[in-house]
Amino acid sequence: MKKSKDLYISPSYSFQDNAPVYLFTNENVADEIRVLGDIYGGRVLSVGASGDHAFAAYMAGAAHVDTFDINSLQQAVTDLKTTLIHHVSYENFMDFFFDTKNFFNPRILMQRDIKIPNTVKVLLGEYERRGNAVFKYEAGQNAAYLTNHIPYLVNKHAYMQLRSVLPKQIGFTHCDMRDIQSPLSKGPGMFSDNKYDVILLSNIYDYVVPSENMISQTDNMKFFYDEFLLPMSRRLLTRNGGRIAFRYLWGSSPSAWSNYIQWVENEMLGNCARTIRKHSVHVRSFPSNQKGCAWDSVLFLKQR
């Protein structure tokens, strides 16, 4: 199986519908979920992205995972990988994504008369039409990094472990951050009266906060808390321990963001609404997956 470095890098990307898609995460999702605390038997809501957050949650023992994303093509990525995981070998999966001669080879997908979801057919059509521009890989994301750090890619045993707990389809709602705290009716059980024990927002904060309109970090964080975290926690988060991982940070050491974290706890919490007393904010650091970084950190809110 011949692998190459930094395959198919797209020159541009923005978070919008039908934008270039992430095929794999550049976050250390396994440790991110681990430091949030036990999620065994819990319900998780996650950004859709590459599907790797949802996969890691199931491997950590989540009973149910729903996803959302502003880019509908990310659902297709999750459906594609779910279909492959359930029907092809670990070796074929790796060939499909990392072998330069077999990358997105339809024969791998169709070798067992697999019923291909319509979303996947759309993605395959986009690949045929747009070529490599339909994909977005972060700099430094290569086969060695992915294989060593994404839980189900580590080896065949881990791959089969995910297969044993992964449902045939993961719930998905096409929407953005402004919608997920509001009543929606798309999909059975999605954003209904059910609550989630953990919500994973990846680094959405960096893209939804209109920083050009703000005059300080305090204003930025207060805006994000007031407009997103507070209504989301009220509507979707379980009481007594529900958690929202609301910002993912890359850094060079476990203390790289220590000053920022202290500022969040003091300034942001001190300036936000009194209802913040119902929450506590935490930071945890862990080894990074990203080339050039040693340690990553996650900021998360915990409901009291």
Descriptive terms for the model:
Rossmann fold, alpha/beta, 9 strands, single chain, 304 residues, disordered N terminus
Summarize it.
The protein has 304 residues and is of the alpha/beta class. It is 38% helix and 16% strand. Helix 3 (72-87) packs across helix 6 (118-130) and helix 10 packs across helix 11 (258-271).
Overview of this protein structure:
This protein has 304 residues and is an alpha/beta fold. It has one domain (21-303): Vaccinia Virus protein VP39 (Rossmann fold), CATH 3.40.50.150. It has eleven helices and nine strands. The chain has helices spanning 29-36, 52-59, 72-87, 90-98, 106-110, 118-130, 143-149, 156-165, 205-208, 217-236, 258-271; strands spanning 21-22, 43-47, 64-69, 135-136, 171-174, 198-200, 243-251, 279-287, 295-303. A seven-stranded mixed sheet has the order 5-3-2-6-7-9-8, sandwiched between helices. The chain has a two-stranded parallel sheet with strand order 1-4. Helix 2 links the parallel strand 2 (43-47) and strand 3 (64-69). The longest helix is centred in the last third of the chain and has 20 residues, at 217-236. It is globular. Residues 1-13 and 184-189 have low confidence and may be disordered.
